[in-house]
Amino acid sequence: MATSQLTASSISARSLASFEGLRPLNGKFGSPAAVSLVSHRSFRGLFVKAATTVAPKYTSIKPLGDRVLVKIHSVEEKTGGGILLPTTAQTKPQGGEVVAVGEGKTIGKTKVGISVQTGAEVVYSKYAGTEVEFNGTKHLILKDDDIVGILETDDAKDLKPLNDRVLIKVAEAEQKTAGGLLLTEASKEKPSIGEVIAVGPGTLDEEGNKKPLSISPGSTVLYSKYAGNDFKGKDGSEYIALRASDVIAILS
């Protein structure tokens, strides 16, 4: 069966979405690059999610239920040393300011309010919510449960977890193998062990009452490898915020 081929110059950023199944020939791109069209199934997760623009005639957004409206902090375009970052190196911001909250939700016979207040600086799950552009600024409408914690400083170690979230300081990777060989940075495996720094107030039971977490600060724990949101502290230490259910064991 014949294979359709295109050169890199014939593909623009605007038309890239039309080729969700693009894959390089022979495992790499040449110059000019040749690509073959393959099954759409291979790149099912590759997509661009655009923000919904709210027309100027609307002057306010009121979240409903247990939803929160967050004004997204702008993407860092420079490093701390002032070096401009290419677009590919700029990470999606995961923090912002709460500008409006819903009325909460009802569990059983208990009315449960929103866990954050207007003006709070929060960190949220990476792929949560619906992005909207309002008054020329990007916002996010997300559920209260998608907010990881409150961060009032610019240091990850000060994160105050919400609900069932836990903040963990990740243990340093092993520098040597069991036989004493030094490991390169690329071969060091990211550990899934760390010390609990802070815990949220707990989960809600079927009646809407708070149920404290069974994990306490100071504990050394083992957690699921691909869970949570990663952060780096000002001192270079790595942290992760995840749900208590992703902690699988306490080490002693």
Automatic annotation (TrEMBL):
Short name of one Pfam family for this protein? Cpn10
**Keyword Transmembrane helix found:** no
- The membrane spanning regions, by residue number, are none
Instruction: Name the InterPro entries on file.
Output: Chaperonin_GroES, Chaperonin_GroES_sf, Chaprnonin_Cpn10_CS, Cpn20, GroES-like_sf
Alphabetical list of Gene3D superfamilies matching this protein: GroES chaperonin
Q: Which UniProt keywords apply?
A: Chaperone
- GO function term, MF aspect, one: unfolded protein binding
| Record's GO cellular component terms | chloroplast; mitochondrion
Entry-linked CDD domains: cpn10
Keyword Manganese annotated: no
Q: Which domain of life is it from?
A: Eukaryota
Protein family according to the UniProt entry: Belongs to the GroES chaperonin family.
Checking NCBIfam families in the record gives: PRK00364.2-2
Q: Name the chain's protein.
A: 20 kDa chaperonin, chloroplastic
